[in-house]
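Researcher: Next sequence.
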Amino acid sequence: MAVANEGNRRVAEQGCIDRVQHLADAANPAFAAGSLLVPLAFFAASLALGSTELLFYTHVAAGAVWFGFALIFPAVIGPTLGGLDEAAAAAVNRTLIPKAVFFLVGFSLTTVLSGTVLLTPDIGLGYGFGGTWSGLALGLGWGLFAFGLAVPHRLHLSAYYETVSPDPDADRLESIEKKNLVVGLFEGAMMLALIVLMTGFRLG
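Model: Next structure:
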């Protein structure tokens, strides 16, 4: 156990690339790669085939997964973990968070990339919407993607690294969970705003 704790301490001190490698190993490398490559493969296939329909459904499906998981995590998973004892919650965090990070990055990136192609007039597969609606939707979509990387993912990873540290701080973990709830509510509101913007589109 002492060896494992020392290894976890070193992980927390590593650089970005080493941390990504550690997270991929913790998530299972095949799962991590699949979470990124599978949704992006549909995006690439729609471009290669020149299929606007495939691109549209890729965007809708990836967005539904992204939005759904982003809402479920703080609304359901977080409170559930809060009701477990420390050992059980730590075990779930060690298994769940690395997988969730790769999963959400893959689907959120696919969502914003496919949405950009669909709504950019100068790209061959785009629907060609211009003006305020598409500009706001694209800006909010990329803003949510950047926000996800900068805030929710960082909070999740903070909880993960605290969990695998030699001496986890229960009070800090509880504080992170409270922040996750607030951030999740804000993110959910922004996602609903994006859906409202998308209802302004008229697909011809």
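Model: The CA atoms of residues 32 and 67 lie 19 Å apart. Confidence is low (pLDDT under 50) at residues 1-9.
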